[in-house]
Write a structure and sequence with these properties.
It is a single chain. With 277 residues, this protein is of the alpha+beta class. The protein contains 2 helices and 12 strands, in the order ααββββββββββββ. The protein has helices at residues 7-30, 34-110, and strands at residues 115-123, 132-135, 148-150, 156-163, 168-172, 180-184, 190-195, 205-211, 221-224, 235-244, 250-257, 266-272. The chain has a 6-stranded antiparallel beta barrel.
């Protein structure tokens, strides 16, 4: 038993007794709660630190909540915008379709003898020298090689050069190999119209073999003279320039095509008409 308390243990016990006496005396003499002060001095920094951590956590949680809310709102707005854009596209498409039908109705009133089949463009296999359109209607719809293609305004688009059961290929007026007999409206000036690719006038038409003394004005209309393939007075284009050919014995005119070949979506193949009209 005499070795039960080591010197270190005895020292700790003495210090503890003295500290207890000191705390008791200070409390009785001065009314100071020294243990409470010690506890407060230890806990106050801890409480302050915990408060800061709690505030930071609350701020972080609030930020994350707002971020998620904003992200959800952003996704909702994107979906609404996509829906609005889709509705706008459908409305524009329907508006354009209605306008085409109105123009077509007017064309039908002016040319009651025309019988046609409509088709939508599904391919544009054109290159530097040729220009063709492939549509989604063919022999099953009554389309044959040699039939004329027009737009809803009655402007010439081209000529059918190939027809399958459910498709047809139209060589457009922009193709240099397609020649159409034409006349300047309101005059007796006749010539041949073909695409301007071969003459370096891509996207335009060229009317050749005009009389050297012909009087040509800008914005004059050029129309078909009529044949077994093209009805009379179908619009080809508008004159924007004129000059003499290399021989100097004839004139040529440069035309802006009446049909918008690059953006056209729907064409109408004339399957029958009165050649005399």
């Amino acid at each position: 038993m005499k070795h039960f308390f080591t010197s270190r243990v005895r020292v700790v016990m003495v210090v503890a007794v003295l500290l207890a006496v000191l705390l008791t005396v200070s409390g009785n003499l001065f009314g100071i709660d020294l243990p409470g002060m010690l506890v407060k001095s230890v806990l106050t920094p801890l409480r302050t630190g915990m408060g800061k951590i709690t505030d930071q956590a609350e701020r972080y949680y609030s930020y994350m909540f707002k971020y998620e809310a904003l992200q959800a709102e952003n996704e909702q707005l994107k979906a609404q915008i996509a829906q609005m854009e889709d509705s706008t596209r459908k409305l524009n498409s329907a508006t354009q379709e209605n306008q085409r039908l109105r123009d077509l109705l007017n064309l039908q009133k002016d040319h009651e003898d025309y019988v046609w089949v409509d088709g939508y463009v599904i391919a544009r296999p054109s290159d530097e020298f040729t220009s063709t359109l492939t549509i989604n209607r063919g022999q099953n719809a009554g389309i044959e090689v040699g039939m004329c293609a027009i737009d809803e305004h009655g402007a010439v688009v081209g000529l059918v050069i190939e027809a399958g059961p459910n498709y047809a290929v139209v060589k457009t007026v922009l193709d240099s190999s397609l020649e159409i007999a034409a006349t300047i409206a309101g005059s007796d000036y006749n010539g041949m119209v073909k695409g301007g690719y071969s003459s370096g006038q891509q996207g335009l038409l060229r009317m050749e073999y005009l009389p050297s003394d012909s009087v040509i004005r800008n914005n004059d209309q050029v129309v078909t003279t009529g044949s077994t393939m093209y009805p009379r007075e179908l619009l080809l284009g508008y004159i924007i320039d004129a000059d003499f050919s290399n021989t100097g014995v004839a004139k040529f005119a440069v035309l802006e095509p009446a049909a918008d070949i690059d953006t056209i979506k729907q064409v109408f193949i004339i399957t029958d008409y009165n050649v005399g009209e």
